[in-house]
């Protein structure tokens, strides 16, 4: 939206050392930076569970964000919650910003997004979704309806899938079948997430935060100086250089962290854990083989520092 409407983008850093938390202090710094550049902040976007990090934010973090928005008149909270069903293990349970706003009796405007495409239902195949408005005036809603009326809608299958997502079975054998399939898919995703995270953590120079939700892991990677120099010579960010070499060598696709924004001097990549469960071990072995070979190719010769 910032690009489409010639807006100003302000980015805030998540805290990797605290399971990719979203500190309000960082959000406030980004807000002040936008103001200092002569722009008026209009929207705060929070993705929970996170993309690319997979973090699931606890209630206290959500409350702090709502209170921050309340302290900034004119700011709208855009809550991307498309991975809300995908929360694993002992991670904080998903709580919607709408619920937090209701519980705090806050009047901040919230736009909540959900999609069939990103959870266990559509698995990135079927396309369809919606947004819900909380504490938004009728006049604004009327203008949004006008915009929607002149736009193309999602395809019929996508609309049907969204309808099924928000109105799941409530009784009978359909309910049992739905619950069994949902539990099986989410359990499989959790097992795959944990296996990939363990494999990444075992790699030399790679560190991966314990998976909490969504469909992604965002490990940090430390690269040899020679690899950094080779990346610079190729005109690429170091993590983009690594990702390209991985693709060329193995066919595995990851997204460089530099495409998302990251603290200076750190490098990451985003990976999913979506290959079929019976193929995950083979995939992680292929990644490990590439990683060892990549580091060896940029290792300083014996006798050199």
TrEMBL record:
<dbReference type="InterPro" id="IPR004839">
    <property type="entry name" value="Aminotransferase_I/II_large"/>
</dbReference>
<keyword id="KW-0663">Pyridoxal phosphate</keyword>
<protein>
    <recommendedName>
        <fullName>Aminotransferase class I/classII large domain-containing protein</fullName>
    </recommendedName>
</protein>
<dbReference type="GO" id="GO:0030170">
    <property type="term" value="F:pyridoxal phosphate binding"/>
</dbReference>
<keyword id="KW-0808">Transferase</keyword>
<dbReference type="InterPro" id="IPR045088">
    <property type="entry name" value="ALAT1/2-like"/>
</dbReference>
<dbReference type="GO" id="GO:0042853">
    <property type="term" value="P:L-alanine catabolic process"/>
</dbReference>
<comment type="similarity">
    <text>Belongs to the class-I pyridoxal-phosphate-dependent aminotransferase family. Alanine aminotransferase subfamily.</text>
</comment>
<dbReference type="InterPro" id="IPR015424">
    <property type="entry name" value="PyrdxlP-dep_Trfase"/>
</dbReference>
<dbReference type="GO" id="GO:0008483">
    <property type="term" value="F:transaminase activity"/>
</dbReference>
<feature type="domain" description="Aminotransferase class I/classII large">
    <location>
        <begin position="3"/>
        <end position="284"/>
    </location>
</feature>
<dbReference type="InterPro" id="IPR015421">
    <property type="entry name" value="PyrdxlP-dep_Trfase_major"/>
</dbReference>
<comment type="subunit">
    <text>Homodimer.</text>
</comment>
<keyword id="KW-0032">Aminotransferase</keyword>
<dbReference type="InterPro" id="IPR015422">
    <property type="entry name" value="PyrdxlP-dep_Trfase_small"/>
</dbReference>
<dbReference type="Pfam" id="PF00155">
    <property type="entry name" value="Aminotran_1_2"/>
</dbReference>
